[in-house]
Every structure is written in structure tokens, then in C-alpha cells.
# Entry
Amino acid sequence: MKILRALWGLILIRLLRRPMAEKPLTQEEAAAPALEESERIVPAGTRERGAENLVLLFLALSTLFAIGFIVTYAEFSSKAMPNQLLGICMGGSLICIAAAFTVVAKRLVVSEELEEEYPSEHPEEQTQVARIVHESGSRITRKRLLLTAAAGTGGALSLAALTTVVSLGPSWNTGPLDYTPWRRGRRLVDENDHPLLASDIDQRTFYTAFPEGADKEQISASLVVIRVDPSQLRLPPGRAGWAPGGILAFSKICTHAGCAIALYRKPTFAAVEPKPALICPCHYSTFDPFNGGTVIYGPAGRPLPQLPLEVDSSGYLMAGGNFSARVGPGWWNVRSKPT
Amino acid sequence: VSSRRRLLRRLSPFALLHLLRGLTPIAMLLVSLDIALMAAAGAPTRAVAAPPQSGIVKPDREPSQPSVKLGSELYAGNCSTCHGIAGSGISSPRPGAGDVLGEGPPLRGVGAEAADFYLRNGYMPLGSPHMQPYTNRVLLTDKEIRSLDEYVASLGSGPGVPNPHPGQGDISQGMHLFTEHCSGCHQEDARGGYAPGARVPPLQGVNATQIAEAVRIGPYLMPKFSRSQISDAELNSIIKYVLLQNDPQNRGGWGIGNIGPIPEGLVTWWIAIPLLILSCLLLGKKLRP
# Structure
């Protein structure tokens, strides 16, 4: 709100300054040409005050639209954000700027063109042309005011565009991204909260699992669970015993852009077909489950985090600890171990 | 001394044109990246099914009704090169009929379900075991397919040909389940596409039985789904949704045949952007003195 008040202040100052800013300029203008009148080659350009006012009106409208954007963004929560209103504000602001520029181009900038080639060999003619350019250049009477208005509008629009950055959070606290609900002993359940029996996990298919009694929407909650032939496992050192009976669990969130690992490629006849892999359908990042989820194809930059598994006394699957790495798409410090 | 002309040029719509000229290589680069992505997605796939060059071997005189005996004769002539004697499978390449180096999975216990699926859409017989089985012309008659189904079913206890009832399904549930389990490869509109290592077949013109079979057996690289993962009732809903995609409701706009987001994006790059550049060129030409 402070920013808004400051903005309003700026606009008010500008509006108040308008009549004052005009005077010295006209005096100057009146005085200056009188001296040089006799020497002028080109008569002074006709003043277009009406066009200037139009430009100022458009710039003011544009500023109002930009402020409207900021107010709308501040008023509504992210879930109830009226996108249409935001769009109208941003669009309106840009259209008004375009209109202001159009008026400037059509009515304020002198658009005459020299017919002949630019004289290069005659220094006198050169200076003459330069003077023509210099003298006939302007129909503008309130240059400083127009520039201030344009700068103000540009500032308001930039501010509006930057407002959205606020949603990144009041601080750089990335703690919630580190949180995972997985602890040793926490059971795996399916989407209907039924615990998963280790004996029910088949080869050649895949299952989605969640932590028992935790929020399923959390980025680190969902798992993709598969069973492979234990003799083919080549898990990285330190992960012995993470895959009881060849059952593997990985984070279902791709480490590239955070899509769900929704494909499990399994060969029907392993001798001639591509080997099993977990694949993200968004950009085809392909992970090798035998090797602890290492990337074998596609844009992902780091392995799929693996969750150690154990089987409890009743035969249900449970977590044997936390993930092998941070869950989710790439961001700063993501390579470090989970907290 | 600054040239007035240069100043004018800077202010005119030429400026936009120059800007766009500068951007064109970037646009082209993006387009080629797009194509490269598509090619990369398609690259690891292998040759797609063709029937064996030796053709189909059939007995001289076929009985009027489907029978296990006819099935066994057809199996010996057309399948045993890869699947081995009595469905035992061949794990290391071995020359067989038509000089094909045969190798293939065992068929004991796969049941009539898998046999019916692979034969009715022309996946089998396959010219070479290194090809991806793909929808193809069916070279066997209905009687021959049923005989082979019976023969494969007799090799070991396995599931029979399913009998789904898509009429009992719910389209909304079907779409939900299809999105969750199938659309990653087959796309939301069941038009198919690519996955690393395989061409994904489109599901248009596929009948209910084949969809049910594919879900249960998981042909080629597709995972199989058991009844605990997708119940028969849920399968009915999925089938109903897939069948609806044969003739989807079109809500207007230019769908470009629902060919999917990447080709649609390419159309934008190749048609919309050239139009934009063209209009800039024309605009610039008109204003040139």
C-alpha cells in the first residue's frame, strides 16, 4: 500500500507541475527563436498542443491501468485471482502506450524526407542540411512534461510487471520444499488409503503409492513402486537392502520439470526389446530403476530420488528411511542431501 | 552530423521489420530444436512390424470349424520359429522357417487373451523378432485365429478372451482413468505418439475387446494392469472413453486433426510466424518512399 501511495503522490505532483512547467518553456521558446528568426532556413514547426494533451491523456490512462493491475494483484488471494481483470489491466495499459506513441508519431514528429542523396562533397550544403534537420525537428512545446509522463508510465508498468514477483514469497525460505513425510516405518498406501502388501506387487506393471496418513498433494508424498528381478539390480553403494524382493520405490516427481513419472516401460521379451525404465511423459526423461534411478535419456539433470523400502511383520510395505536426495524439479541447492 | 534519413528509418515501422529480421534466426533455431526433439523422441524406436517375407503357411485342407488341431498346424508353420515347440519360447537366436533367426518369449500360460490380441490386430506373425509389433494387415481368417487361440490356450492355463461391456461404463470416470494410466503415451485424445524406444499406436478403430486385452496383457513395452489396479468396471469406463475418441465432440476452433501439441506448435511456427513476417514486409514496403 505504501508503494501505491507513493505512486499516487508521483502522479499528483506531475499533475500539479503541469501548468508551472509550461511557463518557463514557452518563455524560453518565445525568446530563443526571436534571436535566430532571420537566420532560420525552415520556419518553426507548428505547435500541436492538442496532440500533446492527447499523448498525456493516453499516458495517464496507461498509468491508471498499470495501477489497476497492482491493486487487483494486491486485493485478491492467489486462488481467487481474477485473471481476466489482470489481463484487461495489463492489455489496457499496453494499448494506451501504443496509442500515445501513435499520436506522437503521427502528429508530433515531423516526418519529411530529403529527396536527394545526402550531399557528401559540399561541406556548406552539409551544414545547411544539418540545420534543416535541427530547426524543423520539433512540434513539441512541453518536452520535459511529456518525458516525465512517459517515464512515470513506464515505471508504473514495470512495477505492475514486477508485482507478480511478490508471490514468490515474503522471504527466501525454501524449508517447505525440503519437507518429506517419509520416516522409517511409515507404511505405503494406494490412492484409496489401502496399505500395499509386498506380495501384491507384480512385475511388468507399476503402482502409485503415498505415505499412510499424510497429505497426498505434497510434492514429496507420491511414489512410483515397481518390482524387478532382484538379480538384475545394480543399486549404488549404500543402498543394499533398499529393495526387498526386488521392489523399488522412487519419487513420482520428475527431477527435470516436476511432472509425474507416469510411464513404466517394460519389455515383453527382454532379449530384443528396450530394457525397463521409468519415463516422464512431459519431456521423455528416462530413468534406470536398476541403477538407483540414474538418467539414461532426456533432459533431467539428476537421478530420481529413491526411497528405501522394508517389509513389516504383516507383509506390508513401509519406508526404511527418507529419500536418497531432494524431491522435485531442479532449483538451487537441490543436489544436497535431504534435511 | 546525424542524418535525418537515418533518424526517420529508426522511427518508421522498418524498425520492427529489422527487429523481426534479427529474430528470424532465433525462430528458426527454435523450430529446428522442436524438430530435433521430435526426431530424438522418435529416434530410439525400431523398425515397425512387417509380416514375414515367407508369407503365411497354411495346411492344404482346413476343417470347416475352428479346432485345436488346425491351430497346432498353423502354429508349427508360422509361430514355432520364434516361440519354439509347443510354446516353449526361444531364448537365444536360432535359424527357423524362411531363414529367420528365431527368438521369442514362451507362450505357456499366456492364454487365449494374448494370442487373440496379437493375431487380430496383425501384430503377429512378425517378420523379425527385432521389430516392434504394430497394427498390420491381418493375414489369418477368423477361423484360423480362433484355432490358434484355442491351441495357445491349451499350452497352459491362462486367461481367456475378455468380454468387456463398455455400455456399462462411465465416460467421466473413463477420462479420469485414461488420463491417469494411459494418456502419458497414448495422448489425451488416444491419437498415440512416441515414447523412448517405441512408437505408440493410436487407438482409433480399435474395438472394445482389443482394448481390454491390451490393458490386461501389456503388449510390447506397455505395462500390464491387473484387476486390482483397474477393475473390470473401470476398464469398461476406459473403453467407453477410448471409443468416444473415434468421433470426439469438436468444440470449434482449428483442431488440426487433434494431432497433438508438438505438431500443433510446429504449425504455429511455420504458418503464424511467416504470416507475421510477411505482413511486416508488406507494411514496410508500403511505407517505403
User: Anything to note?
Assistant: Chain B touches chain A through 39 residues (CB under 8 Å). Residues 121 and 255 of chain B are 28 Å apart (CA to CA). The beta strands of chain B are 90-95, 101-104, 193-195, 198-200. The mean pLDDT of chain B is 82.
